[in-house]
């Protein structure tokens, strides 16, 4: 049975990934980790304090728990990375290199979460291919490009089994967003239910690739469970699900909540969004290891609103709604 370490486990992606991995591999075989005091549930499940910028900290955990697989999610996201570029570089690059060095020594399997932030203003916006111009305009994007090259180098030079996905914006109802440029696609649901109005920080026509958390979890588990012979790309695979504009998201929410309103007040994140693609070509992932998404915009909105609806409202509507789209406890 695998012994798995998840770095950045308290983040938007990590918190749901830990649940999914524990469902598959068992609670005691998945060690969540972060650099802060353990959360409350750590009293009943394995949790380790790990500073990914400290190689000795990573080595100690790997040896203590006899780790053979690392899902490396620890990182500073795009918007926060622009506010703290030095910290972004330290965590995102030095943290990854420490994990890859440990993988080289201890023969670990590694997952690295990259991002569409590797692309930039000269990248084709529609059907962005697997191999294309990567000229990011953010420190976050720069660290992800560098991270992809490090992964490819360690795979080719040292034989490290590292696998990676260029994830789009992730939509989830189980944890708050973590300082990314696509956060509006999560914040808007909370605002729609709580106040009936939202101020969006990108223009209405801004279109970005997005993915619902259950699909993101399936993609990560899918690439890590695939036979080694199927993994042809060791930098990072494009993966995609849906692409929509801010105004299209608003319109879909209004089919459920007709009185919901949205105003637009673009801030510094608009420039970041403008530098990213609108639609991603992920045909290589689909051909190589069988990637397929399941959720479109309509099913995402239906499930998000049902999951976030206040419990009293849920109870009163339970006899009217019997959605088969609810997120199970194994996915985020």
From TrEMBL:
Residues 312-332 are annotated as: Disordered. Residues 323-332 have a biased composition (Polar residues). GO terms for molecular function: L-threonine 3-dehydrogenase activity. Residues 4-239 form the NAD-dependent epimerase/dehydratase domain. It comes from the Bacteria. Coiled coil: none annotated. SUPFAM superfamilies: NAD(P)-binding Rossmann-fold domains (SSF51735). GO terms for biological process: L-threonine catabolic process. Belongs to the NAD(P)-dependent epimerase/dehydratase family. This is NAD-dependent epimerase/dehydratase family protein. It comes from Oscillatoriales cyanobacterium SpSt-418.
């Amino acid at each position: 049975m695998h012994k798995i370490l998840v770095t950045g486990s308290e983040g938007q992606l990590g918190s749901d990934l830990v649940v999914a991995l524990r469902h598959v591999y068992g609670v005691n075989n998945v060690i969540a980790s972060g650099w802060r005091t353990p959360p409350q549930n750590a009293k009943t499940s394995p949790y380790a304090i790990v500073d990914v910028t400290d190689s000795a900290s990573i080595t100690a955990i790997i040896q203590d728990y006899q780790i053979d697989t690392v899902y490396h999610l620890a990182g500073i996201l795009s918007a926060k990375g622009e506010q703290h570029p030095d910290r972004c570089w330290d965590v995102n690059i030095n943290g990854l290199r420490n994990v890859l060095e440990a993988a080289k020594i201890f023969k670990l399997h590694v997952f690295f979460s990259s991002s569409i932030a590797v692309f930039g203003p000269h990248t084709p916006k529609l059907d962005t291919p697997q191999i294309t111009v990567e000229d990011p305009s953010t420190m976050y994007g720069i660290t992800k490009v560098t991270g992809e090259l490090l992964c490819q180098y360690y795979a080719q030079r040292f034989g490290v089994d590292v696998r990676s996905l260029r994830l789009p914006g992730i939509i989830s109802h189980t944890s708050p967003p973590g300082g990314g440029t696509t956060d509006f696609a999560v914040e808007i649901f909370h605002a729609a239910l709580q106040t009936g109005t939202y101020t969006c920080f990108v223009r209405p026509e801004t279109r970005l690739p997005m993915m619902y958390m259950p699909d993101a979890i399936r993609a990560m588990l899918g690439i890590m469970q695939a036979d080694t012979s199927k993994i042809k790309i060791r930098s990072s695979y494009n993966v995609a699900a849906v692409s929509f504009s801010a105004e299209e998201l608003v319109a879909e929410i209004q089919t459920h909540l007709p009185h919901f309103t949205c105003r637009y007040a673009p801030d510094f994140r608009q420039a970041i969004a403008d530098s990213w693609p609108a639609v991603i070509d992920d045909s290589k992932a689909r051909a190589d290891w069988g990637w397929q998404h399941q959720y479109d915009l309509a099913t995402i909105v239906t499930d998000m609103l049902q999951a976030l609806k206040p419990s009293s409202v849920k109870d009163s509507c339970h006899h009217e709604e019997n959605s088969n789209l609810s997120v199970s406890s194994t996915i985020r």
